[in-house]
DNA sequence: CGATACATTGAGGAGGGTCAATCCGGGTGG
DNA sequence: CCACCCGGATTGACCCTCCTCAATGTATCG
């Protein structure tokens, strides 16, 4: 088990990120116990049904949380980027599977460490609250928004979370966007085409770059 | 502000409920600070946008958490019954509105109390985890399940949470079930009729009683 | 006993799913 | 350097689930 690399401090400093707001003492203690995990695209961080004894903080890359209905229907529950945390669950076992979207590195914080550290637990609780808040937002989108609105909402969210430049790097394919939004890939593609024809976005290149021409049009 | 009534201890003892698992010391301390709230049907516990400085534990009755898209589209995010907690939010302000489904009584736990009480905070964190877990379940239902499956899932959930007898008291109307499931009232009614004709449930009486004839048929 | 509110049922339409064809870029091998 | 192939995006045509609108049924209340 490696110590928390120094890059963590630099990388995870987003709004409410894991290490942000941690004072020197806390960060030092965390560094001493946090493990290091590296994943390639498609690799599983943890699987549904496996025992949950740790939380993970994303340092680099992206991770998605997936649930399946039967073998065919996949619902992506959340995307997690640098500074986010995954692994919260209920009842000691994971209810969903976490998979890396690309090459990713994470730090692993054993559950036991939180029991010993009230300050860390309080901090993690804030992140847990944000995860709940985001999940509730998704309920609204999935339950009451049209396909066009859902695609726009996703692009706005990613535009905000991944940096609001004139170009957006989508770390996932159309298929993943569809499974996140409760739609079919064809539908997502059609809505993207509509946005392109409306001059809101540019052409979606094969390496995931999407020019955002009119952010207010989302 | 009243002290936490004795009925709380008796009422809130469900799996993972607020007072369940609290030892005598904790419960005693909580009793000293918890406020008391009573609501009639349709009354607002807290509104979206209002500052969030407390958590609420449901003692009697039921509360729902609602979000609106525009003025027309309502999405019900969760139902909360005896033993559940509402009021978790992100960023100091509520993002949704909590409304009583019928006559309800709750206890109010100021946010500040949790800062002073690490044990209470740890306990509340478990409840927060369960709320997240339930919200993720809803994402799966809203994103990947048919109308028939959603209605069955709701009835199964309520049957489990409100006691698994041969009869189920639904504390909400068809309209609320629809707004929870991302459907229209007519669709929910049709699916209920289908279940009735399949002999799975009986007639849905006007006071909310629904006979569950074949629980395995849900 | 009428009025109201809600559940139910029916008929028709639209949004998004399904299936299939085509396009496109990038990798591979000649 | 180019032909070929392969995975994924795009587009089209059709269909089905669920929505919309409207009428009817039914229980509660004044």
Would you mind describing this structure in some detail?
The structure is a homodimer of 218-residue chains. With 218 residues, chain A is α+β, with helices and mostly antiparallel strands. The first copy, chain A, folds into two domains: 4-142, Jelly Rolls (Sandwich); 147-217, Arc Repressor Mutant, subunit A, CATH 1.10.10.10. Helix content of chain A is 39%, strand content 22%. Chain A contains seven helices and ten strands. The first copy, chain A, has a four-stranded antiparallel sheet with strand order 1-8-3-6. In chain A, a hairpin with a 3-residue loop joins strand 4 (63-69) and strand 5. The longest helix of chain A has 27 residues, at 118-144. Chain A is globular and about 55 Å long. Mean pLDDT of chain A is 87; it is low at 1-17. The interface between A and B is large, with 38 and 38 residues. Chain B binds a DNA duplex (30 and 30 nucleotides) through helix 7.
Q: How many E strands of chain A?
A: 10
Q: Roughly what fraction of the amino acids of chain A lie in strands?
A: 15-25%
Which regions of chain A have little confidence, pLDDT < 50, spanning 5+ residues?
1-17
Backbone shape of chain A: globular
Give, in spatial order, the strands making up the sheet with the most strands of chain A. Answer: 1-8-3-6
* SSE pattern of chain A: HHEEEEEEEEHHHEHHE
CATH fold-level assignment of the largest domain in chain A: Jelly Rolls
């Amino acid at each position: 088990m490696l110590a928390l690399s120094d890059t963590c401090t630099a990388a995870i400093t987003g709004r409410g990120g894991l290490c942000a707001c941690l004072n020197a003492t806390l960060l030092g203690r965390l560094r001493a116990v946090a493990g290091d995990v590296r994943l390639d695209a498609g690799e599983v961080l943890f699987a549904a049904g496996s025992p949950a004894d740790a939380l993970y903080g994303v340092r680099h890359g992206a991770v998605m949380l997936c649930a399946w209905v039967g073998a065919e229907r996949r619902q992506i529950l959340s995307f997690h980027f640098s500074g986010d945390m995954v692994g919260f669950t209920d009842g000691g076992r994971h209810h969903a599977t976490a998979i890396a979207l690309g090459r990713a590195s994470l730090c692993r914080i054993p559950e036991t460490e939180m029991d010993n550290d009230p300050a860390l637990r309080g901090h993690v609780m804030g992140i847990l609250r944000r995860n709940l808040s985001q999940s509730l937002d998704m309920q609204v989108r999935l339950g009451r928004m049209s396909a066009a609105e859902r695609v726009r909402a996703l692009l706005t969210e990613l535009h905000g979370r991944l940096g609001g430049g004139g170009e957006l790097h989508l770390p996932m394919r159309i298929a993943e966007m569809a499974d996140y939004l409760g739609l079919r890939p064809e539908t997502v593609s059609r809505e993207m085409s509509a946005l392109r024809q409306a001059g809101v976005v540019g052409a979606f290149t094969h390496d995931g770059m999407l020019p955002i021409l009119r952010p207010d049009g989302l």
